[in-house]
Amino acid sequence: MADAEAPLLRPAEDDGDEAAPLAGVSDFRGRPVSRGGSGGWRSALFVVVLEIAGNFAFFGVSSNLITYLTGPLGHSNAAAAAAVNAWSGTACLMPLLGALVADSWLGRYRSIILACTLYILGYGMVTLASTLLQQSSLPAGDIHTSSGPSLLQVAFFYASLYLIAMAQGADKPCALAFAADQFDPEHPKERASRSSLFNWWFFSMAVGISISVAVVSYIQENVGWGIGFGMLCAIMVCTFIVFLSGTPTYRFCAPTTDVESPFARLGRSLGTLIKSSSFPFSTNGHQDEDVVAKSEEVRSMLRLLPIWAACLAYGVAYAQIMTLFNKQGRTLDRCIFRGLELPPAALQTLGPASILLFVPIYDRLLVPALGRLTGKPSGLTLLQRMGAGMAVSMGAIIAAALVEGQRLETARQHGLVDDVGATVPMSWVWLVPQYVMMGVADVLAVVGMQEFFYDQMPRELRSLGLALYFSVMGIGGFISSALISFIDRVTRSGGGDGWFADNLNRAHLNYFYWLLAGLSATELVLFVWLASSYTYNNNHKRLQH
Description:
Elements lengths: L24 E2 L14 H22 L2 H6 L6 H30 L1 H29 L14 H30 L7 H35 L2 H21 L6 E2 L8 H17 L6 H18 L1 H7 L1 H7 L5 H7 L1 E2 L1 E3 L2 E2 L8 H25 L7 H32 L10 E4 L4 H24 L6 H30 L17 H24 L5 H7 L1
Parallel strand pairs: 3-6
Antiparallel strand pairs: 1-2, 4-5
Helix pairs in contact: 1-5, 1-6, 1-7, 3-4, 3-5, 3-16, 4-5, 4-7, 5-16, 6-7, 6-13, 8-9, 11-16, 11-17, 13-15, 14-15, 14-17, 15-16
């Protein structure tokens, strides 16, 4: 491989080598590419723009979805929260399937193309569904004679949502990896740029989410749901065109048709481990070495599963941001200026905003300070970082429980218990601690999980490693959905209002939050016990020390 660098990344005296062909990569037509004419930031930024738009659109739907379900679709609070958690859980689990398809057949570029196609179709259908439902609805004065949306309308809306979830599966395991492919890991300056990409990726996502949650939710509730959803579809069409326009500059990893699929390799290694456990002795020395190598590879992956399971309660806590936190905010005084009221979903911008503030604080202040104490350049190990995030998220849930208890007490003091639509005389500022703490927890736990599951997987299975991180959030969403449905059924069985009553002033969200705090505490104890005995692979040891 030519030891050359792209402009802005290399010393001037090496400029003559930038036209040399790079080994192992080609352009979209399979032709050799040079460092100077391909890859680098010029190519990665096309992917970054697409992903910012993708997150903008996804959170434009997810952050305010519970409001749409309890409003135009007429769901109860419990049913809407369970539906949102199930959908978001599916969107986070689909990357497991997407990683399989991308690594085995489609490749990353074509998987992104498929994802964009599904995104545009899904957001277009959501726009059509909400527009048709609005046109078929009776005026507000006739609401008592309305029979609500038809089963076909509801089914069409959910079909469009799950198309978006499928698009997430094709997109999430591939986009970041494809952007990282635009940098040469064997070249010092490009390798440094690739590390910078991971930092700016998370930062950029937080910017996109912040703007989306604040702007789109306001348009949806004050201008129209169809216009709000339609804007997301238009944005995805435009950024898809931008992504395609960068195709001539992309570096495509050369196909390795003589190498078996990473997932076939995983299955073969599992078979080898089982066989070696049954027949531990062999007369073939070379075969013994191969068996030992494959068995160790599988064991290293199996050791990740207990850590993965211990992270699930974090996914359950995370699921409340877009559902019950939103419903809490709707009952509070959300005025910020005279005549200007924040949509409840806009409060979710507090999380990404805290991420934007905490990332530089963590990177520039805490990491060096912790590094001096621990003797590690990274300050904390990946597992220590994840554990710290879990502790902060537990604190956020405790804060949410305390605030909800205060909100219920204030409603009782002002005689608002039976007034469903009343605004409780408490400022939205009360919710700031729980949102900010969840944002800080994201910087610690989410980034830690991304790097941990990526770093500790074999190189050929790192798409699966990133998918494992997404599955924590996915299964956490399903657990939350099942818990809400079960608790709602049990607490309403005696004819009472239940913990998730449609009139939140008669509900008991604080009880549910305390239950989640208990689960988080149990998870944290289990995680610390598992982490204390975990041995990192050699690559991570080298990076840490």
